[in-house]
């Protein structure tokens, strides 16, 4: 059948066994098997003191949100075309979020992070995903993140594709389903994962209080714990500039 005039194509943004995001024109439809994710997302966006996409409607398991203007700060595995000023603006937005009152739901506990790290390192070793020395060294680096932190309002999944800019202005931050009280250095690390050369630009806008050692530790920790999930859900953490490259790069820092 011929495509009808005036209709928008359906674009699959991301899809795996847990959730899918579809784009139809300027509307994103997020389908999630866990209703708590959408609940957290809508509550977090209402509380966050940064630009967020408008919620159009919510009928579980579907959440409809409007597109935000601009383009993502970058993508994992490719150099970011955004200006230093845009990165600084992103840093300032993250700081506003971290300085905001904590959301009224629990965050991730330190013991949960440590247990997950141990389990994922064991899996990576058992499946020879990387040489044992790479895993061992990154597990050693990750230790610096396993310390008590003063909780802040964190996004919780602040990937570079989740921050949108137009020129040097942040126009929107998307995908808030992991938001809650947490370690602010985690957000800074996830945003610069694979783009370590932009950390100075980000921190120029973020201001004082960032701990570079802990940020580097989270680069290792995040890459260690995310790799199995990515592999099992059809993604490639070994693509250039992605998680396994991040882990190998830490060996050069030794």
Automatic annotation (TrEMBL):
<feature type="domain" description="Aminoglycoside phosphotransferase">
    <location>
        <begin position="11"/>
        <end position="218"/>
    </location>
</feature>
<dbReference type="InterPro" id="IPR011009">
    <property type="entry name" value="Kinase-like_dom_sf"/>
</dbReference>
<protein>
    <submittedName>
        <fullName>Phosphotransferase</fullName>
    </submittedName>
</protein>
<dbReference type="InterPro" id="IPR002575">
    <property type="entry name" value="Aminoglycoside_PTrfase"/>
</dbReference>
<dbReference type="InterPro" id="IPR051678">
    <property type="entry name" value="AGP_Transferase"/>
</dbReference>
<dbReference type="Pfam" id="PF01636">
    <property type="entry name" value="APH"/>
</dbReference>
């Amino acid at each position: 059948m011929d495509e009808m005039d005036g209709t928008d194509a359906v674009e699959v943004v991301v899809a795996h066994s847990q959730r899918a995001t579809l784009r139809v024109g300027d509307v994103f439809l997020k389908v999630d098997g866990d209703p708590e994710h959408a609940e957290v997302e809508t509550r977090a966006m209402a509380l966050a003191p940064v630009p967020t996409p408008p919620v159009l409607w919510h009928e579980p398991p579907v959440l409809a949100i409007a597109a935000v203007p601009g383009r993502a700060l970058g993508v994992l595995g490719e150099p970011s075309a955004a200006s230093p000023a845009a990165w600084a603006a992103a840093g300032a937005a993250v700081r506003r979020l971290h300085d905001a009152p904590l959301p009224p739901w629990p965050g991730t506990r330190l013991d949960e992070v440590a247990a997950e790290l141990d389990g994922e390192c064991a899996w990576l070793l058992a499946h020879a995903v990387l040489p044992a020395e790479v895993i061992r060294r990154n597990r050693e680096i990750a230790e610096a993140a396993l310390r008590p932190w003063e909780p802040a309002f964190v996004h919780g999944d602040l990937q570079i594709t989740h921050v949108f800019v137009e020129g040097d202005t942040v126009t929107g931050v998307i995908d808030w389903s992991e938001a809650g009280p947490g370690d602010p250095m985690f957000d800074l690390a996830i945003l610069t994962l694979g783009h370590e050369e932009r950390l100075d630009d980000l921190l120029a806008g973020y201001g004082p209080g960032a701990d570079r050692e802990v940020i580097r530790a989270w680069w290792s920790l995040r890459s260690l714990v995310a790799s199995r999930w990515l592999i099992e859900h059809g993604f490639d953490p070994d693509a250039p500039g992605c998680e396994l490259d991040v882990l190998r790069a830490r060996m050069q820092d030794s």
